[in-house]
Give the backbone structure.
Amino acid sequence: MATQHSRSAARLMLAPAVILLLGWMLVPLTMTLYFSFKKYLPLRGGDLGWVGFDNYIRFVTSSAFWPSVMTTLLIVGGVLVITVVLGVLLAILLDQPMWGQGVVRILVIAPFFVMPTVSALVWKNMFMDPVNGILAHLWKAFGATPIEWLSQASVPSLIMIVSWQWLPFATLILLTAIQSLDSSQLEAAEIDGAPPVKRFWYITLPHLSRAITIVILIQSIFLLAVFAEIFVTTGGAFGTRTLTYLIFQRVLESQNVGLGSAGGVYAIILANIIAIFLMRIVGKNLDA
Amino acid sequence: MGHISLKQVTKSFGATNVIPPLDLEINDGEFVVFVGPSGCGKSTLLRLIAGLEDVTSGTIAINGNDATMIPPAKRGLAMVFQSYALYPHMSVRKNIGFPLKMAGISKEEAEQKIASAAEVLNLTDYLDRRPGQLSGGQRQRVAIGRAIVREPDAFLFDEPLSNLDAALRVNMRLEISELHNSLKTTMIYVTHDQVEAMTMADKIVVLRAGYIEQVGSPLELYRSPANLFVAGFIGSPKMNFVEGKDAEAEGAHTIGVRPEHLTVSKTSGQWKGTVGVSEHLGSDTFLRVNVEGLEPLTVRADGEVELYHGDTVYLTPEPSKLYRFDADGKAI
Ligand SMILES: Nc1ncnc2c1ncn2[C@@H]1O[C@H](COP(=O)(O)OP(=O)(O)O)[C@@H](O)[C@H]1O
Ligand SMILES: [Mg+2]
């Protein structure tokens, strides 16, 4: 089939899809770049002309920039650590033969089907509310003063909410990976004198490394863009303003499209730095 | 030391009883082969000895000590799996050295043991490769290497050659036999292939549905099979069985005659038949002869014999090599 003729026919038929996808990506990217070099204030005079790198300089020199980068990294890193560690443990647990396995597995996956806005609101009002939340009642039951989660421990709270949403994804991927582990490898290690913890460390964990890599890569992409959870809980207050949230505030709250676009370009650069960085660390697992 | 003794060992998975009460003695230094059709419980029996499965009842003693409750790692046995079970992310060196590392043996001593195992198994040039970069035969040798560095009291092999091609299988068979000759350690070897059993074993244990049908040296089983099942299982091609008036004439329900114990004549003999398929191997000729009133008989004739499809032949069994079985299949 791989004749010259059929290959060009294949290219021709692929073209619409490729062009559509390229357009889908390129149009917003180009527009972001375009606006980032303009002073554009929709409610205060509209397009006020080209300004060169002014927006870029203003965005990074604003006092909110570095804290927002740190917050972003903290949330992404925190969620990654929690979901991977708990995901591995849950996957091992769910892999054991047990009663009601099917139901338990569905329950574990369920949070993934809840919309971020909804789950964040549930957490905010039913769990973390300092007066009526379950956690507040729990604290009171032990005679402690309830914590005002979203103001006193805002970043950990957000990490908790987002981890709860992403744990099912990590668990699911890691569970399928664990199920593909040849049980005779574990038996061989058992005969070779490795106790359970060493079997986990030397056999199971290396077997999971590729799946862990995939979980980390995919989750980082989505976690860098976390927005709804912050919007409905703290609204960016109490040190929970991430880069994404800062851009949102610049464009919609301050109505400064040019400044927001410059921030968008920084976000793209940050995402790429993180992606390359992750690929470097864990990339060797992908071609092993 | 590698004396293993099973007393009244049984194993059930839920309601299915895989091993009925079973007794077996394996002496130090013996090469014992468990042979039987697929699903007869050979692997289960081996895994019971290894400790990977718990016995339902009965006791397993190793070197005279009760080992029934001892975990696999402490039994002093090494196992080679059918799928090799190599650790894919470790180099050959680390694979072979893994049991030593787990035993807390010093780096230098481990390195020396790995080197000498690799030497014996022709793996010296491959020590830094991953299992994925090796051929099937090499992987098999790594698995064996991982077993020998532990210097176990006994080796357990579960169909180690079934993933190899025919030529390699013959080679590895020889290598394992040579290994046994040089180490003189007890080996228990599981296979469904009676040729492997016949060529390698000091002692063959024939299993059917968990029951031991017969235990003996290869030639004992060949010369005096205890029943129809063993007679049919040991020997290649399979023994011919004849029922009816020919058997009654010998005072038996069934008589058996091996293909190599039938004499072929073109003029006269006990059974007259026509040649169905003839396979000329050069060294031997296998004939399938259709005799009226009987199942087709397999004959092993001289390599140069000129008989082809449709030829009429007369077959006569050697009277001294005739096996007689009663109605229950027991040898008389
Ligand atoms: N873990 C298990 N659970 C249930 N049945 C099993 C298990 N392992 C083996 N069996 C059953 O035990 C019988 C013997 O299996 P096995 O020892 O693997 O046979 P062999 O190695 O001789 O082919 C088979 O019928 C198999 O289905
Ligand atoms: Mg088996």
